Recover the amino acids of this structure.
């Protein structure tokens, strides 16, 4: 029988963003919204002193926006510029090493959990 090479197992490192843009907990909701729109991302890691402390998610950010139908533009700007992302971020997101098998990591991010699943290098 002919030897068949085993397919290489995919790792978290194969899919993670090597150098993601990050924000800090005191950055404003407006700053997070601007970064998401300019970079075309839906999630941004939140770091403090180089350590991952949270994750700001587009859906959470949109839920915090004042309604443009009932509030003035000034009210919208005041809230978005005056509220730090630390108030709405996902705290203590689960982390993985770059070498962790992708299959094992993705299983821990499937329903019933509806939380976002960041892939952040713990070993960097």
């Amino acid at each position: 029988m002919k030897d068949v090479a085993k397919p290489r197992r995919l790792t978290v490192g194969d899919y993670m963003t090597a150098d993601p843009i990050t924000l800090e907990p005191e950055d404003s909701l407006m700053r997070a919204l601007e970064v998401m729109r300019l970079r075309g991302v839906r999630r941004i890691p939140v770091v403090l002193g180089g350590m991952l402390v949270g994750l700001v998610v587009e859906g959470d950010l949109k839920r915090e926006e004042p309604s443009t139908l009932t509030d003035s533009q000034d009210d919208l700007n005041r809230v978005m510029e005056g509220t730090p992302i630390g108030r709405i971020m996902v705290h203590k997101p689960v982390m993985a090493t770059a070498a962790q098998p992708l299959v094992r990591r993705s299983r821990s991010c499937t329903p019933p959990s509806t939380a976002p699943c960041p892939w952040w290098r713990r070993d960097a």
Summary: The two ends are 43 Å apart (CA to CA). The chain has one domain: 20-107. The longest strand covers residues 51-57. Residues 110-115 have pLDDT under 50 and may be disordered.
